[in-house]
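Chain A, query sequence.
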Amino acid sequence: MKILVLAHAYPRWRGDVAGAFIHRLNSALLKRSHNITVITPAEENSWGTEELDGVEVMRIRYAPAKWQNVAYKGTMDAAVRRPLGALAVASLILRQASIVRGFRRKGVKIVHAHWWIPGGLTQFMSLSGIPHLLTLHGTDIRIMESSLPARLVARRVIKGATAVTTVSNFLAEKVSVLTGITRSKIKVLPMPTEINGGFESAGSGIVVTVGRLTAQKRIHVLLKALQILRHGGRELQLKVIGDGPERDRLVRQATDLGMQDSVEFVGEVSPNRIASLLRSCDVFAFPAVDEGYGLAAAEALMLGIPVVAARSGGVVDTVPERGAGRLVEPDNPDALAQAVEAVLTDSDARSQAREVGKSLREKLSADRVAQEYESLYREITGGEVM
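Chain A, predicted structure.
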């Protein structure tokens, strides 16, 4: 089957973290004999058509080079609220829509758009007539929640899709409320992840967190929690893996708390390095709120590392209340500190995390997820697969 994929974030090189989960799905579909073409925005001076692991990637120029910066930074929701950013996004959508229309003549059987803006809106504007699946990931839903005009547009785009998926039950419920679509018509299908290795900690007291450093991730709450533990006599080391706009503020906070020697800001790393950095850690902390799925938490469990997370967003589909993890009230450093301490002193937490991780490895394997999407493509196209 010829499949056209629309995504505003897609790996720019092998090992790039941008849209890595979408590339993982596309690569698995490629192995199942499907033909994949991805349409994604250019970044500054980089555009044109290339091949990435057998997947054709068209990087579309939509503005002068210096303005081609609305994608790949994790700030699309902020960009659409600024005049120049909104203009750039509109230009991207119109440019992509004109290209999508031409793919009907090339035998494309289905369009798979990730995020309702710009991908879903691109397909909606293209009037291509090709059946299309829309997958919502979370950041796009926050745009709907914060803006009435965006919500009105999004409702038309989402209702106009042939089928809709979200990556968690949390997001499916939100979409149903915001659009009026019956909950049963929204299918929950998480993105795939594959992570190798296992738990090797020797009880060194290392806490780790992974993610883009934005306010939503609530790393500042984690720093306060570790300070609370420190005052109680529990000295822990923290590894912060990832980068983003909050990094400088968090570094200053760690210094102000007198924790600069116990907090390591690792920076952004490629997905294939995550496992090696996580293996020696005792607890994975995930204090983020309203995460669409919380893939990093799932990956930690797949390595057999217990997870402490905020009871918020899609992560509750994955992290248990007890045993392999703990769920605590969001934005509560005292509760987070108590949960970290509880996991560290629970002798069964690691073995239970390994059991949960084993189940997740099967559920989130690239081939398993690709098979589920393949079945959905078959349903959307009336039974045609190849």
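The first strand starts at residue 2 and ends at 6. Residues 132 and 193 are 24 Å apart (CA to CA).
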